[in-house]
Amino acid sequence: MIKKTIKAAYTNFLSSSMFFSAVAAATLMTTSAQATINCAGYLPNSYFERIENNNERFADKLVTLEDNSQQLQDLNGNILLAGLTDAYALMNKYLIASKDTAKGKKTGVVNAAGEIIVPFAYDAIATEPDIYTSFIVNVTMPDGATNQGIIDRDGYWVYPAIKNNERQQQRRIDNGYGDYSDTRPTQRCVKAVDAPLNLTAAAISHAHYDSDDDRDYFLINALGDASTIGKIGLLNDQGKWVIAQQYEDLQPLNACAGQLLYLQAVSTSSLSLDKVETQQQTALLDQNANIIIPFAPNQNIELFNNWVSNNGDHSLLFLSSTLIKGSIATGLTQDIEDNIVSAQIIDSKGKLILASEAAIVKLLYHQFYAYKRDGKFGFIDDQANIVLEPQFDSYRDEGDKVWVEKSGEMVRLNTLIELD
Length: 420
Fold this sequence. Notes:
Helices cover about 5% and strands about 50% of the residues. It is mainly beta.
């Protein structure tokens, strides 16, 4: 997937909107499992072509008045929307702003024509920087709890789903290039302006933007549903659960990279019939719930590398580490190395590429990794190709200097291979 630098024409819009989005996201997301992922820099040409071909772009004027309130006007000076504050343009497509209401200052989203996409009814709105294809809305309840929901780019509810049980309606479908001439029947056709505050007790975060299908994915932990409380699932922007709400944690490993999403799933299972004794297990899933690396205790999975070959093919490699018994550590090898007993590099089909009797550790200043086989250390590159076969009794990484031990003698690694 070809990446494309954001055009200079959008720079001013981005500088302000990314700041607002970052603040809103920080307000909404409170745990590591719910951290918002920034997809900046991973958008394909087709995304920007869709923006450029958008006929409703903000050629309109956002005017600040003497009282510091703002108005959205068209090119003829006609007022489309008044009484706005803290307004920001998002990628020349939407305007996110606040407005005084009977319930106090609330936030909403409008398009360039002044049409309200997200009603001015919410305390905060989080949207993904550089993408802006969906909006996570929240309201703080009287008891201090936060209720959340998801509204898509066209102003329809994604979560919680509202279905029109009377009849199917025709919904406009964006073909990815700003063309809404295609329509499809749908039951998920309730607009947020017709049913505001359709919220539930949940922890919601944006997990992935699939640039090939122009589709969003969300991690959702339904905090108020007794049957799924504390469980996380993956929902797409059509309101479909692609990974059921049944896991203690789902960690995206390659979000926004223009590829199928892979996640480390964490599940807790019972060791006895009375369910008193439990153990944590992890697995590697893709966004279609296919299991790539099976569930196992004392296992940590992370992305090893995502590189593009000379012919343009992507190759995803994952690092699966076996931990000391009883460890539930998850994260990057550099942070949990003391917990690791052995490691394997696995491709996206689940095929074993390389096995190590110790943690596979990246050198501090170089694109090489140390691994261990038959009691000896060797080195691989960032594509898991063997650079030096295992032959060293030990190694010492001092950053700019790397030493290896062979037959009792310490020598510099750069005398054996060229270090980049």
